[in-house]
Design a protein that fits this description.
Layout: E1 6-12, H1 20-32, E2 38-44, H2 56-59, E3 63-64, E4 70-71, H3 74-82, E5 91-93, H4 94-107, H5 117-134, E6 141-146, H6 156-169, E7 174-181, E8 184-185, E9 190-191, H7 194-205, E10 212-217, H8 223-233, E11 240-244, H9 252-258, H10 261-269, H11 279-289, E12 293-301, H12 311-323, E13 326-334, H13 335-339, H14 345-348, E14 352-355, H15 364-376, E15 381-384, H16 386-398, E16 405-407, E17 416-421, E18 436-444, H17 449-454, E19 458-465, E20 467-469, H18 474-479, E21 482-488, E22 493-499, E23 505-508, H19 523-539
Parallel strand pairs: 1-6, 1-7, 2-5, 2-6, 7-10, 10-11, 12-13, 12-14, 14-15, 15-23, 16-17
Antiparallel strand pairs: 3-4, 8-9, 17-20, 18-19, 18-21, 21-22, 22-23
Helix pairs in contact: 1-3, 1-9, 4-5, 5-6, 11-12, 12-19, 15-16
This protein binds glutamine (GLN).
Residues 357-359, 385-386, 409, 464-467 line the site of glutamine.
């Protein structure tokens, strides 16, 4: 039977960084726990076609989907929370919307007309909302998160489009949820509701009356305060939901359920559902909050001061830690720090090292030091994308004696380009969307550690890179003991490397962190944490 999709629009007010993505994903989890099928869409008001060309300093991590879209990192939260595969249709930007409209105009689709924000841009935004709700069949609920903060000039067309959309589908079929901040002012010893009042006023000026307010706060939002907010914002006190700061983002769905949000959603949307089942979620959160063991992993990258650049890796370690009953402490090292650590004092304090993905030269030598240290000291080593490339260069230089081994990315004239351009990548000048992107199959050699860990001969993992292991060097590297345990059958590219005479030394050309979810932590992260715990035991 074809379902009639209901829509929930999530906007944000007062300040950015309130965790709108987590809020939207948590709403998804509350609905899913009642047996509903849910999907999400993120609308981003910036003009880039996608975040793929932005620096991590601007945007944090670029989240890659199976179909090769470079998307907003909130899609990572969506997948991790509700365990549904996101695709290109689940993220749209101003850049994409205008691109489509301008292409239509050049084709002559609007011949005779003046192309305008209303109705042409807003119609295209509405098309994208419909497309997300229809992708992969039909859903009970589509949650649409609007990036930015109400009051931004650039989000206006999106707000106008959702206003129109809500009107078209009618009351009971669409809900508007506004996430705001109720700050605690120390001098007055009071929570202040004025910023929320103003933000809702801005929203109502645009024609949107929020149905539910979610209020971020560090103190309890009393009934009195909720009544006050309700009075000024034209909602009932029960429609003002407290969202207290939480120790873990994974607690948020539980807090929201406790504060009555789940019930509000289904009542307002007229959805008949079973009672929510959040037992497994609760037991995951318990494991995250009270582990009995501890392990310390050094992460050696380029953007360490900006944790958002490695969001999915951090979350993957939370998932893997919970299964191993361990708190995984991540220590962030600028790769340059290791270039000035000849005694390896920093490195020796770790129970494992991870080299994440990255681009460009800065800190490469430091990463090589960390890799060599882990290899020579039997310390668990996990290389992801650039991390695999780093492991291959280090092995070529220090084990195979090829001093001039390098990656073509860092040294165009390398004597031994053990990491080289993928076929067809050399000479590419357009930067947007031109890397090897998205899911590819990987065949795993049966007698390998990778096979033991995955328990499968073939897996599918997501990619985002231009360079690869140069197959011309495979023979010589293998002869010295580097094992190429995973290969992409479509183009014969190396996907996994490992060392057999080391307790845990694995590099992968793909990004396993993009597949780890609360419901299914990634096996490589789970086993890496297990190996690090083992290594720690051996040290003491
Ligand atoms: N810079 C490397 C490449 O393009 C690695 C990319 C990555 O780590 N995501 O191949």
């Amino acid at each position: 039977m074809k379902r009639k999709t209901k829509y929930i629009f999530v906007t944000g007010g007062v300040v950015s960084s309130l965790g709108k993505g987590i809020a939207a994903a948590s709403i998804g989890q509350l609905l899913k726990s009642r047996g509903l099928s849910v999907t999400l869409l993120k609308l981003d008001p910036y003009i880039n076609v996608d975040p793929g060309t932005m620096s991590p300093y601007q945007h944090g991590e670029v989240y890659v989907t199976d179909d090769g879209a470079e998307t907003d990192l909130d899609l990572g939260h969506y997948e991790r929370f509700i365990d549904v595969d996101m695709k290109q249709v689940n993220n749209a930007t101003t850049g994409q919307v205008y691109y489509t409209v301008i292409e239509k105009e050049r084709r002559g689709d609007y011949l005779g007309g003046t192309v305008q924000v209303i109705p042409h841009i807003t119609d295209e935004i509405k098309n994208r909302i419909l497309a997300a709700s229809k992708n992969n069949g039909s859903y009970d609920v589509l949650i649409v998160e609007i990036g930015g903060t109400v009051g931004d000039i650039e989000s206006l067309p999106f707000l106008e489009a959702i206003r129109q959309f809500g009107l078209a589908v009618g009351r009971g079929n669409a809900l508007f949820i506004h996430l705001t901040l109720v700050p605690f002012i120390r001098a007055a010893n009071e929570l202040k509701t004025k910023p929320t009042q103003h933000s809702v006023k801005d929203l109502r000026e645009i024609g949107i009356q929020p149905d539910i307010l979610m209020c971020r706060t560090e103190k309890r939002l009393t009934r009195n305060l909720r009544e006050k907010i309700g009075l000024f914002c034209n909602v009932n006190a029960d429609e003002v939901i407290e969202v207290r700061d939480a120790e873990s983002i994974y607690e948020v769905p539980l807090l929201l359920e406790k504060n009555g949000l789940g019930q509000q959603l289904v009542t307002k949307l007229g959805l008949n559902t079973k009672e929510p089942d959040l037992c497994e979620w609760q037991s995951f959160v318990d494991r995250v909050k009270k582990p009995s063991k501890k392990v310390k992993i050094g992460i050696c990258g380029k953007y360490v001061e900006l944790r958002d650049a490695y969001k999915s890796i951090i979350e993957s370690f939370i998932h893997a830690g919970a299964i191993n009953d361990a708190r995984v402490e991540l220590e962030w090292l600028a790769a340059e720090d290791l270039e000035n650590d000849p005694e390896n004092i920093i490195l020796s304090s770790f129970d494992g090292v991870l080299i994440p993905g990255g681009f460009g030269e800065r800190g490469f030598e430091g990463k090589l030091n960390a890799t060599q240290y882990a290899r020579e000291n039997n310390m668990p080593f996990f290389g992801i994308c650039l991390g695999l490339q780093c492991a291959v260069v280090e092995f070529a230089r220090n084990v195979c004696g090829m001093e001039g081994a390098d990656s073509r990315e860092l040294n165009l004239d390398a004597e031994h380009p053990v990491i080289d351009f993928q076929p067809g990548q050399e000479g590419i000048e357009r930067m947007g969307g031109t890397m090897r992107l998205g899911a590819y199959p990987c065949d795993i050699k049966p007698k390998s550690r990778a096979f033991q860990i995955y328990g499968k001969k073939s897996v599918s993992e997501r990619h985002r890179h231009r360079f690869e292991v140069n197959n011309k060097y495979i023979k010589i590297l293998s002869r010295k003991g580097l094992k190429f345990s995973g290969i992409c059958p479509q183009n014969n590219l190396v996907e996994i490397i490992e060392l057999s005479d080391h307790p845990w030394f694995i590099g992968v050309q793909y990004h396993p962190e993009l597949r780890s979810r609360v419901a299914s932590p990634h096996p490589l992260f789970v086993d890496f944490v297990r190996a690090a715990l083992e290594f720690k035991k051996g040290k003491s």
